[in-house]
């Protein structure tokens, strides 16, 4: 999916919501557990209920890899289902890959050829040759970890060099030599608030994938105040706050309602552009 196509979907649907499919087998509604593939059945119901209100889905690979071949089959079925039933939705594989060049080439082949997702989250720590193999696929996106919202991010990401440049700023500045606004985004946690101003000083036009709205307490209004661009420039992810809003038989309906609430807030914010 190109940037223009993504932007068109955002303004057509008046939404920049990404629904995270962090599908935890221990949190599935009981009535799904006797089905042949509970992970996929849960995902299918969530996808259909939330698709009218979002522009992207983000399956988190850890929740599928934990179940070996069966889990990866559920992941593939989920991706194929989105592509078949909701073909205009952006699909992000949240796998946080990144290794030496030859290994990254195989990871890129896995996700961009075998699974044919639109985007993949990538860790930048090993530098240019670990990231550029993912950028060789036209129409595909690298979403580079930049400033995350977990407590451990303080260990490295906010440390500054002798010139005062923090590590996350250097990652963003340097990586723009590898990719561009048409094939690279950055992960920035919603709980970072005003620091989105600092992000935009370094990357004024790149799309940002923003986890942490909802269960993690990030403010959608604050993210938009400091991070939104003329063509939106944001994909805001919500996982637990939507998909686990209920574990009763009407779980999908409740998830759809939660997604619609966020979409309505987003429509209001987009109208201010």
The main β sheet shows up as: 8 strands, parallel, barrel
Average pLDDT works out at 95
The amount of beta strand, in percent, is 15-25%
Topology order in helix (H) and strand (E) letters: HEHEHHEHEHEHEHEHEHH
Strand order of the largest sheet: 1-2-3-4-5-6-7-8
Helix content: 40-55%
Counted by DSSP, the helix tally is 11
Distance between the terminal alpha carbons, to the nearest Å?
Answer: 23 Å
What is the number of E strands?
8
**C-alpha Rg, in Å?**
18 Å
Which stretches are low in confidence, meaning pLDDT under 50 for 5 or more residues running? Answer: none
Q: Can you tell me the overall shape?
A: globular
Q: Which structural class do you get from the secondary structure elements?
A: alpha/beta
């Amino acid at each position: 999916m190109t940037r223009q196509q993504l932007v068109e979907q955002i303004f057509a649907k008046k939404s920049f919501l990404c629904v995270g499919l962090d599908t935890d087998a221990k949190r599935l509604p009981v009535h799904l557990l006797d089905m042949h593939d509970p992970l996929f059945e849960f995902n299918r119901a969530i996808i259909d209920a939330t698709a009218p209100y979002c522009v992207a889905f983000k399956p988190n690979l850890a929740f599928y890899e934990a179940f070996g071949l069966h889990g990866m089959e559920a992941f593939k079925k989920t991706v194929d289902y989105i592509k078949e039933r909701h073909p205009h939705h952006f699909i992000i594989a949240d796998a946080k890959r990144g290794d030496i060049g030859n290994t990254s080439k195989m990871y890129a082949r896995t996700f961009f050829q075998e699974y044919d997702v639109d985007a993949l989250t990538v860790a930048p720590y090993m530098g240019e040759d670990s990231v550029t193999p993912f950028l060789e696929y036209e129409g595909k996106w690298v979403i580079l970890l930049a400033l995350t919202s977990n407590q451990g991010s303080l260990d490295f990401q906010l440390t500054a060099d002798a010139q005062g440049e923090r590590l996350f700023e250097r990652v963003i500045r340097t990586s723009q030599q590898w990719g561009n606004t048409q094939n690279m985004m950055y992960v920035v946690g919603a709980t970072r608030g005003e620091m989105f101003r600092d992000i935009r000083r370094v990357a004024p036009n790149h799309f940002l994938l923003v986890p942490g709205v909802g269960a993690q307490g990030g403010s959608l209004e604050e993210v938009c105040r400091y991070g939104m661009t003329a063509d939106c420039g944001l994909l805001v992810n919500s996982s637990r706050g939507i998909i686990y809003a209920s574990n009763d038989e009407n779980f999908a309906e409740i998830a759809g309602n939660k997604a619609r609430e966020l979409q309505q807030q987003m429509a209001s914010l987009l109208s201010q552009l």
